[in-house]
Amino acid sequence: MRTFREHCIRQTEWLDGPWNFVKDPGDTGIRDRWFERFPQDSRALYVPSCWNNELSLYDYEGIAWYRKIIRTPDTRHIRLIFHAVLGHADVYLDGRHLGYHYGGYTPFDFIVPSLAEGEHELIVRTDSRLDRLTIPTEHVDWFHYGGIIRLVELQRLPDLHIQRVDIGYELEGADADVTIKVQLRSLSQERVATTLTLSEGGAVFHTGTVSVESGETFDYEVKQRWPDVRLWNVGRPELYEIKARTDFDDRTERIGFRRIETKNHRVLINGSPVYLKGVNRHEEHPEWGFAFPPKLMGKDLDIIRELGCNAVRGSHYPQSPYWLDLLDEQGLVFWSEIPMWGAALPNDTVKEPLFRERALTMIEEMVNLHIHHPSVIFWSVHNEIDSRTQDAYEMTEQLVALVRRLDSSRLVTYATMHPLEDVLLPLFDAIGINKYYGWYEGETAGFGEMLRQFHERAEAMGAGDRPVLMTEFGGAGIYGDTGWEPRLFSEDYQAGIVSEALSIFRDDPKIGGTFVWQFADVRADLHSNGSHFRDRARSFNNKGLVNEYRKPKQAYREVRSLYQSWRD
Ligand code: ADA
């Protein structure tokens, strides 16, 4: 899950490998009781994975149950972390319901105090079905995978454990006012005392003592001025590993110091404008679905760096912490967003309390997951919803207010498909535009006139000073299909659209960056029971610069020659 060790003292174990798995189409009459008696006829399924990558489960959307026996060598408090389960998840331990989570790309956890020595049965019921109130809704342009897509972790906790470590800072020049909050939680029957040390890169910078009453949670806060810190910059990253350690437990977090602002339509990092050269990346692979293996993340990053990129948009959901660790280490910036994907989101959906509540929870979980990564500079609240209405405005106001309350150091943004009618522009620090001239509408040259009108409108709405980011544009090209003429769906046609669009954007001083749609081809939602996206040849969204196995198309080569030649 990470490129560095989060714990050295705390005992952790990955529950990866085969789990018992059974799908539950709901016609057995005993549905929802399988946590009491798991069916005998289950098969083995590797965790983490998506079941839709297995034979006979290709287009199964629905309920599925997982089971794993865990062993505890002695009576201990345990913490179970599910790093990501798609859709609805109910977790049971020895027949007892530990809790429910809705989401897909963020972790949730359960603490079980004093779990007795021996074997225990862990059962997870998942439901991957999408509907009008799920996020995303049932109409979405990616494959409706299901499963436990990131690792499950079993931690053994001491009586007094470190619940969380939050690190914040304010920069004044190169000096940082750092605040470190360590939250300690007691599961003991008695008061427990401990020393607490904080270190950075192995050197202790604070030692204290603390005692926590039985069953209490205690917030320990340290503020310090660190002079002359090494700043994290694009292409020149600098990272700080900060470790909290008690007599019984430890936790390491990693941060980078940088200041993010906007000025003259540009994003500034540490006062210097950075023109964002990016791609949209789904964390998806034809053999692994959303359970993307870390080894391949390294390769994705190599291919993206070779392209000349300094930025990645995590379309369309919070991506793995391992991936963000790699971006932190290589000095690329990241756009993180929740999976609210709207192209045809019915407008009344955005008014629904359950839909909004889910969106707010997803935002909170995303910020929590990614807060310490210096690569993350954007929080995005939605993609292509109907941004022309008052209802959208009200919901967006709520989402933006929450993001700003949780983190005021980054830019809040979104991607609009209605740039000339959008009412949300003034709510954001940067505006993302998704448009497909040359593909879904008109000639590629149409971008020029659209942008002229957009800038006028943004000015009139009081949002004329924001960086405009071209967050999606492109066209489909089937890998290997080339010819003498640029036919629709050929590599040549796609390359033509993308390079012409990039040249138009680069000449527009109000545009602060470009994110090609998309990095790699991804499986599309073309189920037998649905008729959306019938233009997705091969059942893939073929707008990747590389195909689904990361082989480069003509468009990759052309974007590389442009991106590598662009200077800030
Ligand atoms: C949209 C959407 C993407 C993808 C793209 C396309 O803009 O945000 O997820 O569906 O269109 O390929 O049409």
From TrEMBL:
Taxonomic source organism? Cohnella fermenti
EC number(s) stated in the UniProt entry for this protein: 3.2.1.31
Q: Give GO terms: molecular function aspect only.
A: beta-glucuronidase activity; carbohydrate binding
Top-level taxon in the UniProt lineage: Bacteria
Q: Which family is it part of? A: Belongs to the glycosyl hydrolase 2 family.
Where do the Glycosyl hydrolases family 2 sugar binding domain residues begin and end? Answer: 76-158
Query: What does the record list as GO biological process?
Result: carbohydrate metabolic process; glucuronoside catabolic process
Instruction: Identify the PANTHER family for this entry.
Output: BETA-GLUCURONIDASE
**Keywords in alphabetical order:** Glycosidase, Hydrolase
Looking up SUPFAM superfamilies in the UniProt record yields: (Trans)glycosidases, beta-Galactosidase/glucuronidase domain, Galactose-binding domain-like
Q: Where is the Glycoside hydrolase family 2 catalytic domain?
A: 261-565
Q: Where is the Glycoside hydrolase family 2 immunoglobulin-like beta-sandwich domain?
A: 161-258
- What taxonomic ancestry is recorded? Bacteria, Bacillati, Bacillota, Bacilli, Bacillales
Protein name, please? Beta-glucuronidase
